[in-house]
TrEMBL record:
<keyword id="KW-0732">Signal</keyword>
<dbReference type="Pfam" id="PF02321">
    <property type="entry name" value="OEP"/>
</dbReference>
<keyword id="KW-0472">Membrane</keyword>
<keyword id="KW-0812">Transmembrane</keyword>
<dbReference type="InterPro" id="IPR051906">
    <property type="entry name" value="TolC-like"/>
</dbReference>
<keyword id="KW-0998">Cell outer membrane</keyword>
<comment type="similarity">
    <text>Belongs to the outer membrane factor (OMF) (TC 1.B.17) family.</text>
</comment>
<keyword id="KW-1134">Transmembrane beta strand</keyword>
<keyword id="KW-0813">Transport</keyword>
<dbReference type="InterPro" id="IPR003423">
    <property type="entry name" value="OMP_efflux"/>
</dbReference>
<dbReference type="GO" id="GO:1990281">
    <property type="term" value="C:efflux pump complex"/>
</dbReference>
<dbReference type="GO" id="GO:0009279">
    <property type="term" value="C:cell outer membrane"/>
</dbReference>
<dbReference type="GO" id="GO:0015288">
    <property type="term" value="F:porin activity"/>
</dbReference>
<protein>
    <submittedName>
        <fullName>TolC family protein</fullName>
    </submittedName>
</protein>
<feature type="signal peptide">
    <location>
        <begin position="1"/>
        <end position="20"/>
    </location>
</feature>
<dbReference type="GO" id="GO:0015562">
    <property type="term" value="F:efflux transmembrane transporter activity"/>
</dbReference>
Length: 482
């Protein structure tokens, strides 16, 4: 019974393993997987998380600070009693406790500006994350289409080789029958051998492209990695029918390059405002509560029970010289133990509160230089924004022309394939009746194969360049249908 269960489990896991190895990756799956696992994107996500912390820190600048402190000391020898401020030679313990509250009332509006800058910086990090995702998605799409191109090129060569094998058998029969010379058979065999070599090269190109795509996706199982086998039709030309000005305007709204440059300019302007805040006074408020206790013994006065009344002469009566006496309690100075811990804390506490004003007068030109430096940075970001807009317009226009040229090249390749197919059929008919030799027939077949390979290459080149143009128009790679 246990053996049957073990065999069943092994069979089940083997089946699951074979299913996992048979997985075929679509373009959407590759893009989504890359967006979840790419290291560059993960780093950009950490940058977004860090800006959230910066924003929380900027909010904290508006809140008061609250700090508590406590201290406990042992003193020996001549020391100052923290309660009576008397210097005494003794060993005692003392402690102090306090709570302090501070708040910035005015600092040239710098806290407000820092909060606004934190929000701008968070938006900038989100734009950078979006750009990283677009760049990775476009790179994945290019790698994916390269695999498709290599696979289609392999199919073209394999299909032509099948025709060559059929022609080889037909030529062999004709040579054996004495209809064709031996040289025609050798020519066909040489063509077949050349095609076998190119098939091996094409298979290697497919494997290299698959490994490159797997490495980009951070997939280590190169042996079983493969993409989905499906027909990829040439997309419609709706994008090519749009005016170039409309595509450029849409790109300025949706592309992250210009948005990043705009955010950098806004952040630079906010940094300038923060630097100017150093010209203004700073007003701070504070409140504190303190208390203390000491274990040092003190001195006190007590009534002398044996002689409770002290009589002293304080003067004489004028004329009679009679003594004027004064009686007071006879108090003796004696050493006493300290009061209880909590009683001292209650008795010795106190409050303190106030305002502090700091007016900048001269600080070695630091504030003025900071303002000048930030002015320069604002100018720099303005030029960067202008350059980003020019680059985007140029890239969109170039992408439009590339897609248009690729479409025309693909149409021309289709016409060429049809013409070469007719030429091949004509050469084949002439070869079958012995009106042409094997070399001329092989050349016709070779031209057809080149035309078909060029058609495949132009097809995927057009697809990729059209996708680049769609990306500029704001269509995400993951939403693009092939």
């Amino acid at each position: 019974m246990r053996i049957k269960v073990l065999v069943l489990c092994i069979t089940l896991f083997a089946g699951l393993g074979s299913q996992a190895q048979e997985k075929k990756w679509t373009l959407r799956e590759c893009v989504e997987y890359a967006l979840e696992n790419n290291i560059t994107i993960k780093q950009s996500e950490l940058d977004v998380e860090a800006t959230s912390i910066d924003r929380l820190e900027a909010i904290g600048n508006f809140l008061p600070t609250l700090n508590a402190d406590a201290s406990n000391f042992w003193s020996s020898g001549l020391s100052t009693d923290p309660i009576t401020n008397e210097n005494r030679t003794q060993t005692f313990r003392s402690s102090r406790y306090g709570v302090n509250v501070g708040i910035t009332i005015f600092s040239g509006l710098r806290n407000i500006k820092r909060f606004q800058r934190a929000k701008l910086n968070k938006l900038l990090s989100q734009y950078n994350l979006g750009k990283s995702k677009d760049d990775i998605a476009l790179f994945i799409a290019n790698s994916y289409l390269q695999v498709l191109l290599n696979k289609e090129s392999l199919k073209v060569i394999e299909k032509q080789h099948e025709i060559t094998l059929e022609q080889l058998q037909r030529t062999k029969d004709l040579v054996d029958a004495g209809v064709l010379p031996q040289g025609d058979l050798l020519e066909i065999e040489a063509t077949s051998a050349d095609e076998l070599t190119r098939i091996v090269q094409a298979e290697n190109a497919v494997q290299i492209a698959l490994v490159s795509l797997a490495q980009t996706l951070l997939i280590k199982d190169y042996a079983s990695f493969d993409i989905a086998e499906q027909e990829y039709l040439v997309p419609g030309s709706e994008m090519m029918d749009k005016p170039i000005d409309q595509v450029i305007a849409k790109a300025r709204e949706s592309r992250y390059e210009v948005q990043i440059a705009e955010q950098n300019k806004l952040i630079a302007e906010k940094d300038l405002e923060i630097a100017r805040g150093a010209y203004y006074p700073t007003l701070n408020g504070s409140f504190g509560y303190d208390t203390r206790e000491s274990g040092a013994k003190g001195f006190g006065r007590v009534l002398d029970e044996t002689n409770p009344v002290l009589t002293q002469t304080i003067g004489f009566v004028e004329g009679t010289n009679q003594n004027v006496l004064n009686q007071s309690p006879n108090l003796l100075l004696v050493e006493q133990n300290p009061s209880s811990y909590f009683k001292q804390l209650y008795t010795n506490d106190g409050l303190r509160y106030g305002l502090s004003l700091s007016v900048p007068i001269f600080n070695g030109f630091s504030a003025r230089n900071a303002v000048k430096r930030n002015k320069v940075n604002v100018k720099r970001t303005e030029f960067q924004l202008e350059q980003a807009e020019l680059d985007l317009d140029s890239n969109v226009y170039q992408a439009y022309l590339d897609a248009k040229g690729a479409a025309e090249a693909y149409e021309a390749a289709q016409v060429s394939v049809k013409a070469q197919e007719r030429a091949y059929e004509y050469a084949k008919d002439r070869y079958d009746v012995g009106l042409t030799n094997a070399f001329d027939f092989s050349q016709s077949k070779f031209r057809l194969e080149n035309a078909q390979s060029q058609e495949v290459q132009n097809k995927f080149d057009y697809i990729f360049k059209l996708k680049v143009l769609e990306l500029y128009f704001g269509i995400k790679i993951a939403d693009i249908k092939l």
